[in-house]
Specification:
615 residues, alpha+beta, 4-stranded antiparallel beta sheet, 20 helices, globular, disordered N terminus
Length: 615
């Protein structure tokens, strides 16, 4: 066996090691015979304590406090790893550690330092309540709900013309809208049963609008001026199928949301929509020695920029309003008396309607696929995509491509998440070029594109942070979930429904590194056995939640990772388990490993495989 290097050096640009200050004075170099990784010792018995005196500057104090705050999370993570590795006891930091352990501790420390201190908007107190409220879309106690303020609304410009939904859908999906009565509308019996189960009598209406008829009439007039509503004659007691309220956007503007709970009871459940998930991003690979570059863009008011057929639009009715208040003087070629009650109806996709997301997503994908080709779209449950320099027999992208050319190259991939688009490439020039062509295609279709970011090795997309080839969850989301979990552990009791929401957030984080899914076991039993009653958590549930919150910074994937040529096969039974391994050609490993595991659910003989294979 070749001798290991005499001294291991941390990667370039990594933060100073927590144990370089002498926390582990008895470090044994390559001559150590210690072979076990676990248990790992905790870090920083000495360097994290300090006393502020007259010679300590404010900058140094802040830096030491941030370091101490991060150190607590690092040690929580080390403790969780020791427990998950079957070594619950923590190693004595005064004892010798091996080179392998030192490398592990450096890597762990680097991952936590990259998360950094909590953002100014993250508060430990109330984090759990905020997380639970944000998961209930129509909860009137949501903190981001704001009263209607005309000057703050983020809606299409006056005179805007929405694009036709049906003609911009892929051919395979156009029948959904062309014959919506058959494909989308539920039967009267199904609608009645859904309405009874939902318990919705009337939709929620913003009190700031319905309290004053003139304010409501002006609101309807604003929608009409932007091409969002049409009118038909209706009774004065028409309440409409849609409610409405406003929520705060990141930039402080107000986004108009429609309460579609009553409307959704009239329609069938939508088909599954395949979006670019965290798992799809983490499964991608970039070759060619590049960390990857991402360019992003956003379609402004995507839902309100797509016009539905007039017959379908009349299902999206709003509370009635007198003609003179909403500014309607003629209708259908004839005059309308001022006091005539009119029923406004939404002519575009209502944000919140059960079918809106699927239809909007399919329009966006159809436009983007015309540029990059269908095989280069990043979707959940698809085979993983490899991005890198094109082989010699594959045509590479040329800088003189016109706006109508199709890229369709292995040198880039594209993710479409409703109104957000990301272009990924091993080359900054190709990512930028691909983004420009997609933006041009969206604008040619009649959509408004804004918030265009240049290709960079650091980007944020759908709650993910992409930085120098590493894919992880956004740092603010990590802190929010950690704070919420710590608050729950302090409370000590929880209902299954509330715990299910928290576990749902964890599951989304775990998709970046799926091995973390194995942490939860007893939490599912708690959810199942106590769905509505708040009961104390068992020690096992508390341990699993603490472990999950502790390892969040370690859940990341490197796009540049190579396929391991060592292939393992394992299985278990009620009386034992077995593991075997072999070496395989890396190209074969990549070809098999790139296939998404859900393929077996689409082949009859692969469903319940043991039953098919064994007599």
């Amino acid at each position: 066996m070749p001798a290991p290097p005499e001294q291991w050096q941390p990667p370039p640009g990594s933060p100073p090691s927590e144990f370089s200050s002498g926390a582990f004075p008895n470090f044994v170099e390559s001559r150590s015979r210690q072979r076990e990784i676990f248990p790992l010792p905790l870090l920083g018995d000495k360097s994290d304590h300090f006393i502020k005196d007259a010679h300590t500057s404010r900058v140094v104090c802040r830096r030491k406090l941030r370091r101490s705050h991060c150190l607590a999370w690092i040690n929580d993570g080390i403790t969780a790893l020791n427990e998950l590795g079957g070594r619950g006891l923590v190693a004595d930091s005064s004892s010798s550690i091996s080179l392998a352990q030192r490398q592990c501790l450096d890597s762990i420390s680097d991952a936590y330092h990259k998360v950094g201190p909590p953002p100014d908007t993250a508060y430990p107190d109330g984090a759990l309540s905020e997380l639970l409220r944000s998961s209930r879309f129509y909860d009137v106690e949501r903190r981001d709900i704001q009263p209607y303020t005309k000057g703050r609304m983020a809606w299409p410009d006056v005179g805007s013309t929405p694009i036709d939904l049906e003609s911009n859908l892929p051919t395979a999906d156009r029948h959904l809208v062309a014959d919506w009565q058959h494909h989308l509308l539920a039967s009267p019996a199904e609608a009645a049963a859904s309405a009874t189960a939902a318990g919705i009598v009337r939709p929620y209406l913003d009190p700031a609008l319905v309290a004053n008829p003139r304010v409501y009439g002006d609101f309807i007039r604003e929608l009409s001026d932007r091409g969002l509503v049409g009118f038909c004659k209706g009774s004065s007691d028409s309440r409409g199928a849609l409610g409405f309220f406003c929520v705060t956007k990141k930039n402080g503007d107000l986004r108009l949301i429609f309460d579609t709970r009553l409307l959704n009871t009239r329609f069938k459940k939508p088909v599954s929509t395949r979006l670019p998930s965290a798992a799809a991003f983490s499964n991608a690979a970039i070759h060619g020695g590049s960390s990857g570059f991402v360019a992003t863009s956003d379609v402004k008011n995507a839902f309100y920029g797509m016009r539905v057929p007039e017959s379908l639009a009349k299902e999206f009715s709003l509370p009635s309003c007198p003609a003179h208040l909403c500014g309607v003087r003629s209708l259908g070629g004839g005059p309308v008396p001022p006091d005539t009650p009119l029923t406004p109806y939404l002519r575009v996709l209502p944000m919140g309607w059960s079918w809106a997301l699927h239809l909007c997503q399919r329009v966006m994908e159809s436009i983007v696929e015309s540029v990059v080709g269908p095989s280069r779209i990043l979707r959940d449950r698809d085979d993983s995509l490899t991005i890198g320099p094109a082989p010699a027999h594959v045509a590479t992208l040329k800088p003189d491509f016109s706006e109508t050319d199709c890229l369709n190259s292995c040198e880039l991939a594209c993710a479409v998440y409703v109104d957000n688009v990301a272009v990924i490439s091993h080359s900054v020039a190709l990512a930028e070029r691909g983004s420009c062509l997609i933006v041009s295609a969206l604008r040619r279709a009649g959509l408004i594109v804004h918030e265009i970011t240049a290709a960079s090795s650091s980007a944020e997309f759908i709650g993910l942070q992409i930085e120098d080839g590493w894919v992880s969850v956004k740092k603010s989301r990590m802190w929010r979930l950690r704070h919420a979990t710590l608050e729950l552990l302090e409370r000590g009791s929880v209902s299954g429904s509330a715990l299910e929401i928290l576990v749902g957030h964890f599951s989304w984080h775990f998709m970046v590194s799926r091995c973390a899914l194995s942490i939860f076991c007893d939490v599912y039993r708690h959810i199942r056995e106590h769905p509505l009653i708040q009961v104390p958590m068992s020690s096992a549930v508390r341990r699993e939640l603490r472990q999950a919150a502790s390892v969040l910074p370690l859940l990341r994937t490197d796009w540049r990772s190579d396929w391991d040529t060592t292939v393992l096969a394992y299985d278990a039974s009620s009386f034992g388990l077995g593991v075997c391994q072999t070496k395989c050609d890396p190209k074969l490993v990549e070809r098999i490993g790139s296939q998404h595991e859900s393929w077996r659910y689409h082949i009859a003989d692969s469903i319940k495989a043991r039953g098919h294979a064994l007599p």
